[in-house]
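Supplementary Methods. Inverse-folding protocol.

Structures were first reduced to a C-alpha cell string of length 290. This string, shown here, constituted the complete conditioning input.
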C-alpha cells in the first residue's frame, strides 16, 4: 500500500498558477465617459459658414457665399451624425449657414431691385419752379431755361424746390399746392373719429395735384408723397389713420385727367421736415421745402 503526501498534485489541493495582472484602464471604470474626439468635419463646416456669411453680405462677391453656404450646411449636418465627436462646432456651423443664406437672399434681391431701378427707372424728371418777382431774365429763352431744369442739383434734400413747383416725370405731373403746419383743426373737423396727434407731435397737411400724362390710364396711388424730417426719418401718410374731407383718393385717371387732395402727416414737435415727391413708382425722389 503506497502513501501519497497531500500537496501538489492532490485532488484536495490542485496546483495553482499565477495569472498575469491586466493594467487598469481608467476610461473603463464605472461612471467615467471617454471624452469626445475632435470633429474635423464640424470645424470645416464652421469655417466655411463664417466665410460664406461674410461674402453673402458683399454684393460683388455674392457668388462665393452662394457656393460656401450650402457646402457648410451639408458638412454641418453630416458632422452631427458622427459618433464619438463633439457637436458644438457642427451646430454653430449649421445655424450660421442658415442665417447666412437668408442674408444672401436679402442682399441678392436688394441688388436686383437697385439694378432694375437703374435700368428702367424714370430719369427724365424735370422741375418747373415758380418765377420769383426778384428775378428778371434777359429774354424769354433764358427765362424758359431758368424755369425748367433736370432734377439734378435742384430737388435734393440739400437743395429742395419751393412749393408750387411743377414736378414732371414720364407719366405724372405733380404740384405741391400748399402746406399747413398746424392741421389739428382741419383733422378734427373732417371726421369725429380722427384722433388727435400724439403727445409731442402735430399734424401737417400737404395739398397737392396729380395729373396723369401717360398712355391709357393709371391710379394716383402710383405717385408717392410723404415727408422726411431733418434727422432723416420718413413720415408716411398711413402712419396716422386720418380721414380728410379732400383726401386724394385712389381713383383711376385717364390721360390728361387730374386729381387734387390732401394728406395728413404726424410731425414731431420741433422737427423740420421736407416734402418728398416721387412722380411715378420708379421715378427719382424730389424734395420740396414747405
Amino acid at each position: 500500500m503506497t502513501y501519497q503526501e497531500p500537496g501538489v498534485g492532490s485532488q484536495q489541493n490542485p496546483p495553482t498558477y499565477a495569472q498575469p495582472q491586466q493594467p487598469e484602464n481608467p476610461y473603463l471604470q464605472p461612471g467615467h465617459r471617454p471624452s469626445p474626439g475632435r470633429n474635423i468635419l464640424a470645424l470645416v463646416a464652421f469655417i466655411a459658414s463664417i466665410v460664406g456669411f461674410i461674402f453673402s453680405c458683399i454684393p460683388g462677391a455674392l457668388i462665393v457665399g452662394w457656393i460656401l453656404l450650402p457646402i457648410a450646411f451639408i458638412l454641418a449636418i453630416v458632422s452631427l451624425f458622427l459618433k464619438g465627436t463633439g457637436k458644438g462646432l457642427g451646430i454653430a456651423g449649421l445655424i450660421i449657414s442658415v442665417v447666412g443664406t437668408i442674408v444672401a437672399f436679402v442682399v441678392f434681391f436688394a441688388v436686383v431691385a437697385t439694378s432694375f431701378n437703374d435700368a428702367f427707372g424714370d430719369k427724365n424728371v424735370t422741375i418747373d419752379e415758380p418765377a420769383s418777382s426778384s428775378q428778371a431774365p434777359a429774354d424769354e429763352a433764358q427765362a424758359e431755361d431758368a424755369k425748367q431744369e433736370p432734377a439734378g442739383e435742384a430737388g435734393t434734400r440739400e437743395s429742395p424746390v419751393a412749393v408750387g413747383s411743377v414736378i414732371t416725370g414720364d407719366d405724372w405731373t405733380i404740384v405741391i399746392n400748399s402746406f399747413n403746419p398746424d392741421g389739428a383743426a382741419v383733422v378734427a373737423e373732417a371726421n369725429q373719429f380722427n384722433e388727435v396727434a400724439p403727445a409731442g407731435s402735430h399734424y401737417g397737411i400737404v395739398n397737392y395735384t396729380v395729373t396723369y400724362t401717360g398712355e391709357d390710364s393709371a391710379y394716383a396711388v402710383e405717385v408717392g408723397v410723404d415727408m422726411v424730417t431733418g434727422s432723416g426719418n420718413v413720415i408716411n401718410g398711413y402712419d396716422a389713420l386720418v380721414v380728410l374731407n379732400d383726401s386724394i383718393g385712389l381713383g383711376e385717371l385717364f390721360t390728361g385727367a387730374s386729381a387734387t387732395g390732401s394728406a395728413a402727416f404726424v410731425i414731431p414737435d420741433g422737427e423740420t421736415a421736407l416734402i418728398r415727391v416721387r412722380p411715378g413708382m420708379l421715378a427719382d425722389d424730389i424734395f420740396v421745402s414747405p
